[in-house]
Write a structure and sequence with these properties.
This protein has helices at 7-62, 67-97, 101-109, 119-130. It is mainly alpha-helical. α1 runs antiparallel to α2 and α1 packs across α4 (119-130). It is rod-shaped.
Length: 137
């Protein structure tokens, strides 16, 4: 079949195919870099929320016996952290709701994608993009 094509048409088709392939590779690399940045931001938010939670939890466990006496102090500390927690949760929702086509395409193409560095963030992103579907995600 190839031998029946004129050489100029073959070169044109090869050039177009190569250009499309190269464009796809560049777009994929850009998407991976963007996904990595998104996961980094999400992971920082998750870590900060965990730190706040741990801080409040440690204070609670240390003071369990005198909880009633220090109830107001704990409420005040929680009140101080509340704006920061709300801000972090809002930022996390904004990042997760910015559904990027290239990120969705990558995760669909590689449903078993795992990240050593951003495990929690990637799981949150997969859940946000595809819901709680457990088929390979």
């Amino acid at each position: 079949l190839v031998m029946y094509l004129p050489e100029s048409l073959g070169v044109t088709l090869l050039s177009v195919g190569s250009l499309l392939f190269l464009t796809d590779v560049v777009a994929t690399v850009i998407a991976v870099v963007g996904l990595n940045k998104l996961l980094d931001q999400l992971e920082r938010i998750v870590q900060r929320l965990n730190n706040i939670s741990t801080d409040l939890g440690e204070n609670l466990s240390k003071n369990t016996l005198i909880f009633l006496e220090r109830n107001e102090e704990l409420r005040a500390k929680l009140g101080e952290k509340r704006p920061e927690v709300e801000s972090l949760l809002l930022k996390q929702r904004e990042l997760l709701s910015s559904k990027n086509f290239s990120h969705r395409r990558l995760i669909r193409a590689f449903p078993k994608l795992k990240s050593v560095k951003f495990t929690l963030a990637l799981d949150k992103l997969k859940t946000e993009l595809f819901g709680n579907i457990k088929k390979g995600l």
